[in-house]
Amino acid sequence: MNDSTSTATLNKDVQQRIDEHLDAIDTVLQRGSIARTQRRNITDEVESQIREMLAQRAGKKPTLADLEAILAELDPPEDYGEEDQAGYICTEPAKLSMLAVVGAIFPCITLVIHLVTRVYLSRFDGVLTISLTCQGLLLLVGMVYGLIALSQIRHSRGRLYGLGLAIFAAVPVPVLLIYRLIALGVTSIVFWIRSFGLSPSVLEMVRGPVIPCIAILLILVVEFLFIRWAWRAANRPVGG
Amino acid sequence: MRTWTAQLRKGLVELAVLAALREGEAYGYQILQRLGRVNGLAITESTVYPLLARLARDGLVVVRAAPSPHGPPRRYYRLTSLGLSRLSEMKSHWHDVCAGVDSLLQGVK
Fold first, then answer.
1. Which of B10, B49, B54 sits opposite A45 (nearest CB)?
2. What ipTM does the predicted assembly reach?
């Protein structure tokens, strides 16, 4: 692992065992995307410590048993891969999640298709149906991308960012569903009330702006609560 | 309980390492030994060495290599002015947290 400048010489087996231990640490660090120079510095420190402990305890001719006793006291290589450690020294800059970017494009395309259909194509027969189908499919694909991106970002230990984009990709489908459900619920209630043959004043109130206003308010509140819940859930630490 | 104490130690490790270097320049194993003298801290090499690498990268410590009688050259770490300033900030924050938590714990048996 290292070009030793040591005055103490180690037998081949002992040196080999040290190298195995250092290689195992290096592998764990590598898995955590630690830069080569830093991995080298860390393993050098560990080797230095092992050699010093060996010299203190076993003098100039340490045996494999002496080394094993020391290694048993040290942290196992896998401890170098703990989440906090990896986060501590990760030198690679965080990357924008491409899945989140791609996912966020789908709602934008959907919006463009929706507007173009409404403004220019609504007079053509069948176009609206095809357009709505396409919009639904695009939103579903965007949601799938968004959910995968969310999972990847949350498990990336800070190496990926773009949580906002991922949520933007993932929430339109449930947001539209909530909107539709509330609208449908309110309409059903209005029809139900009308069927009772109520007094004209009450019917006037039902026909007037009060019910739509209540429906809009309800939609806004529920959508806000849902998006806030989604944002908080996405930001919650993994396993927390 | 074990998880909680481990998390607490991890949160304190940077402050502890910077404070250990306040005593003067030291190499990795020496820093571990300094920390080992503190009861309850129980910080081990798998935490300290990666942290030292990070502190060096961030310019909070400077590193000087010197020959060792036992093995590869020792890497001596020394606090920079930036490191001292960070230590001072962390110390102040630590005192605030301690005072706050102490006040919360008053009366708890």
1. B49
2. 0.83
